[in-house]
Design goal:
233 residues; MetI-like fold; single chain; mainly alpha
């Protein structure tokens, strides 16, 4: 709320020079915000679609040997600096086959790898911390392995998994501020223009918008975590 109030005060009471006005044009900021949210949304959907099934798979006894190589791949996304990861994906995928224009597909692919680790690790931890005696009791009542997974393990692990998803969301919002470097747009364009043209107000507005977006998404994710958690857990 303090950040939003400060940003509103700067917007209302500051006198912008023509260059700053061009950088902070409403149409431009709305376009960048849409790009930022679009990239964050689809990269997080991809992270959830890959990391949760993979985390479930490698907690099954017959696939535990895959845990090390899968975690190595997920760790590589966090080990490589975000800028380097974007450049590597740009060199690999390029922009010629981009589904959404510019470097959006490349940005989504890079952010997907970058955000895999929290969701994958939390899925594994959440499932592995479920009391084995509870699972055995369910199996003793006639549940199949699949039923035990869906009705016991996942419901008991969902709060930990959602915490990982929430972390990945915030990571992706912040990292999406760099995707302008590969032509994918986003609010990083405003920050970059402010830096190049030495307009501190534009830098502050761009950085504040990214921070507000991260805080807003984190708050929405916290609400989702609260309401999706099974009752009594």
């Amino acid at each position: 709320m303090i950040l939003a109030a400060t940003l509103a005060a700067v917007w209302v009471y500051s006198e912008f020079d023509p260059t700053t006005e061009r950088i902070l044009a409403t149409d431009s900021l709305l376009r960048q915000a849409r790009q930022h949210i679009w990239i964050t949304f689809w990269s997080t959907i991809a992270v959830v679609g890959i990391a949760i099934p993979a985390g479930i798979l490698i907690t099954r006894p017959r696939f535990k040997r895959l845990g090390t190589p899968v975690l190595t791949v997920a760790n590589s996304g966090q080990a490589i600096p975000a800028y380097g990861l974007l450049v590597l994906f740009l060199a690999w995928l390029g922009q010629g086959a981009d589904l959404w224009g510019g470097g959006t597909t490349t940005a989504v692919a890079a952010l997907t790898l970058y955000g895999l680790l929290p969701v994958l690790r939390n899925t594994m931890v959440g499932i592995e911390q479920v009391d084995r005696s509870v699972i055995e009791a369910g199996r003793g009542m006639g549940m199949s392995k699949r039923q035990a997974l869906l009705k016991i393990e996942l419901p008991l692990a969902v709060s930990v998994i959602l915490a990982g998803v929430r972390t990945a969301l915030v990571i992706n919002v912040g990292t999406a501020a760099l995707v302008f470097l590969i032509g994918a747009g986003g609010l990083g364009e405003t920050i970059n223009s402010g830096l190049k043209l030495q307009r501190n107000t534009a830098i502050f507005v761009g950085a504040s918008l990214v921070a507000l977006l991260a805080l807003l998404i984190d708050w929405i994710a916290a609400l989702a975590e609260r309401y999706l958690r099974p009752k009594g857990i």
